[in-house]
Q: What sequence folds into this?
């Protein structure tokens, strides 16, 4: 990778035990050209960090606590980040802190077109998480970590992926695995499959009954799983109902209720559409008639 990143660590708010996982995680994104850690190195509370700085080539930046209750470390880290923004050719920044004080910095860096990766402990406030392009809880990076509470449920993730696929299908586009991953992170900046017990996004998505992954060489796409026999029965039922309704047709409202009574788990998005009307319009021998008050499905005779 040619992308260059700056790693900036707030020693006051992150434990030294995470340094190896942090560097391993950051290696996925690019080359770390700056490694700096900020704190008061005359203080005994940072002694654990002193042991790992040399072996990981991290430069300590000394910042004395001049005034009680004021965090001088934050100011030094923010000033350095802004200097790098204007003087260095960096693709992004990795900000390591569990402190919300870096929320404005993350937002400012993103406004300048930089990719911002945030990492912090589970206690990190939501404001800082949301200000980053990607946020990773450090506890998830430790192999012996017990998974914490899932802030975003699996049902929410599944619904979000279904919506992504449906939107693409309506625009005649396929949905790649990479697109799903990037859009989920945009929706939920702290989304991480490890939170749900998986190491790969593909394996995580395969756990959903409504999603299907298809491999074509190196390309992997995500589609909606369809039981072909059930789909055929549904389509035959719809055509039959509309045909038997005659020239008047059947209102979409009534048709929808009839389908749900016959196929209890029917959801139009499972068939690649966001609206019921769009789905019915896709039938070759059914047209939609609008009488000004409601829409009707009318059977078109075969020529």
A:
């Amino acid at each position: 990778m040619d992308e260059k990143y700056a790693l900036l660590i707030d020693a006051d708010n992150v434990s030294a035990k995470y340094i190896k996982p942090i560097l391993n995680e950051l290696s996925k994104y690019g080359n770390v050209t700056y490694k700096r850690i900020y704190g008061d190195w005359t203080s005994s509370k940072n002694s654990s960090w002193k042991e790992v700085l040399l072996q990981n080539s991290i430069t300590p930046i000394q910042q004395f606590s001049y005034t009680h209750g004021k965090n001088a470390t934050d100011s030094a880290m923010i000033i350095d980040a802004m200097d790098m923004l204007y003087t260095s050719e960096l693709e992004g920044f990795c900000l390591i802190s569990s402190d919300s004080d870096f929320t404005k910095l993350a937002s400012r860096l993103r406004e300048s077109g930089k990719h911002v990766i945030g990492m912090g402990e589970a206690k990190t406030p939501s404001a800082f998480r949301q200000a980053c392009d990607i946020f990773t809880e450090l506890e998830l990076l430790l192999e012996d970590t017990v998974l914490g509470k899932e802030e975003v449920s699996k049902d929410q993730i599944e619904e979000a992926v279904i919506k992504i696929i449906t939107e693409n299908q309506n625009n005649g586009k396929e949905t790649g695995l990479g697109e799903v991953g990037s859009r989920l992170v945009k929706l939920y900046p702290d989304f991480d499959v490890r939170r749900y017990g998986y190491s790969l996004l593909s394996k995580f998505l395969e756990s959903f009954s409504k999603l299907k992954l298809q491999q074509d060489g190196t390309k992997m796409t995500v589609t909606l799983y369809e039981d072909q026999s059930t789909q055929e029965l549904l389509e035959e039922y719809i055509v039959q109902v509309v045909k038997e309704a005659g020239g008047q047709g059947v209102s979409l409202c009534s048709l929808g209720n009839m389908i749900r009574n016959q196929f209890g788990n029917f959801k139009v998005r499972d068939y690649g559409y966001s609206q019921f009307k769009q789905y019915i319009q896709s039938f070759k021998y059914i047209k939609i008639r609008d009488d000004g008050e409601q829409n009707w499905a009318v059977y078109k005779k075969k020529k």
Notes: Confidence is low (pLDDT under 50) at residues 144-150.
